[in-house]
Design a protein that fits this description.
Strand order of the largest sheet: 3-2-1-7-4-5-6
CATH architecture: Roll
Largest sheet: 7 strands, mixed
Oligomer: single chain
Shape: globular
CATH class: Alpha Beta
CATH topology: Bifunctional nuclease domain
Strand content: 25-35%
Distance between the termini: 46 Å
Number of helices: 5
Number of domains: 1
Radius of gyration: 17 Å
Number of strands: 7
Helix content: 25-40%
CATH superfamily: Bifunctional nuclease domain
Length: 168
């Protein structure tokens, strides 16, 4: 596992896919992560400080802090050019729990709150072992943790079209 930074977001002309380029801070290895085209705007806006979710991210951080907890880091599990899933750590009373989520949502949150992003390129056997280990339960209200899980696990087939029926 290595800490990584998002260095570039672009559309690959050859494959016509949107790529988030990440670079390992120690190895300087470049990792190309293919992301859904519809979600690229979230990261582009966040990089410029214009993401409309900024107030929501600030509220999350403040609520977690008021509850005596803290966000730790985001870990993305990658297999080749695809990051299959990710999770954000939440610490409370010396215990850590993990909230799974969509890769783009987690990276945008990490960029906004300045928490570290790590890339894990573990093979299937290692990730299966990790899943078998029990995660510590947080003492935060379950309704709050459930809300975070719902927001961070945004479905990749989200309809980004207008919800106003007159626009259709």
């Amino acid at each position: 596992m290595e800490r990584a930074l998002v260095t570039r977001l672009y559309r690959d002309e050859a494959s016509q896919q949107t790529v988030m380029l990440m670079e390992g801070t120690q190895s300087k290895e470049r990792i190309k992560v293919t992301i859904p085209y519809q979600k690229a705007g979230i990261l582009a806006l966040e990089a410029h400080g214009l993401n409309d979710r900024c107030p929501l991210y600030g509220m999350f951080s403040q609520c977690v802090g008021e509850l005596g907890a803290a966000f730790g880091s985001v870990v993305l599990n990658c297999e080749g050019p695809r990051c299959t899933h990710g999770a954000i750590s939440l610490s409370h009373d010396g215990r850590t729990s993990w909230i799974g989520g969509d890769v783009v949502e987690l990276v945008a949150f990490a960029m906004h709150t300045h928490i570290p992003i790590y890339i894990s390129k573990s093979d299937t056997s290692e990730s299966e072992e990790d899943e078998g280990q029990p995660r510590a339960k947080t003492m935060l209200p379950s309704v709050f943790v459930d809300a975070l899980e719902d927001i961070f696990s945004s479905e990749s087939d989200t309809d980004y079209s207008s919800s106003d029926p007159s626009d259709r």
